[in-house]
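Chapter review: from sequence to fold.
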Amino acid sequence: MGASIQPTARTPLPARVYRQLALGGFQSGAELARQLGVSRTAIWKSVVSLRGLGVSVHAVRNRGYRLPLLCEPLDAAKIRASMPEETRARLRRLDTLWALPSTNAALLERTDLPLGHSDVLTAEHQSAGRGRRGRVWLAPPGGAICLSLSWNFAQLPRDLGALGLAVGVCALRALRACGAQGVRLKWPNDLVLEQGKLGGILIEMRAESGGPAYVVIGVGINVALAAALRSQIAATGTQAADLAAAGVEPGPRNALIAALVRDIISGLLVFELEGLKPFAEEWQRSDALRGRSISVLGAEQSTRGIARGIDGNGALVLETADGLKRLISGEVSVRPDR
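The token string follows.
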């Protein structure tokens, strides 16, 4: 069984304060101190700590503290309860933590996962969360979903390099099932809205030639971004969007995590047998780049052209002045329409 964030003496005080504030409304420092059995100074220091992690906390004299953007705290029991039985049967462990360096890195350290089962790890905050190409993933407590899921393939599956595309389709299914509108897929591993990047997928693996392949699938999704964090992300060159822009209330994160785990595990079982093919048509229908003029930055050069979807192996098909080219990796930027 997993461990959820519970307000105990062993839980970091900022986590316990956050959990109380997530109940909604203003709560005075004195009342928080009484509820948590600490001093008002300790409450104030915890609020400072939360703000340092990127949480927007309002403070009003004679009223107390409140969270302007309410999100349900992570809870392993609620996540499990929202899953169908066939998904729960595939879980070995489900853990929800307050903070750690990286959910992906933590799962990569494990070596004993049985075939056909999964470990799932989520955290409110990552101090070293990673995106593609080593980028930092900025995600304050309550503001995002930081989810990692591990899986052992008995043998290296065909189309393994396209696993991120299949997982993108699975994530899209889960988001749509939870009411998200306008979400599309951007090659190779992004979930996007018209307003900007909603989330991303990072897949890391450990494999032996001809033997089992252990993969860790990281999914990061922006749930509710405060204006200050949007500006901070924009300074890195990325326009960010959150679930509110997709028409989804930011509160029920646990149900969304359950949907993501359900659809990803279901997709892994299919991918292991059939590769990318069962996902390809759905991916093509949700392609955010098709028909657009783009640049793809590779390891040594940049290639420009018109995006024409993906091929059967998941490579990006690019129509260039020299004909069609197929790219298996790269950083995509959309060129302005002339």
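Two observations follow directly from the output. The chain has ten helices and 14 strands. Residues 1-9 have pLDDT under 50 and may be disordered.
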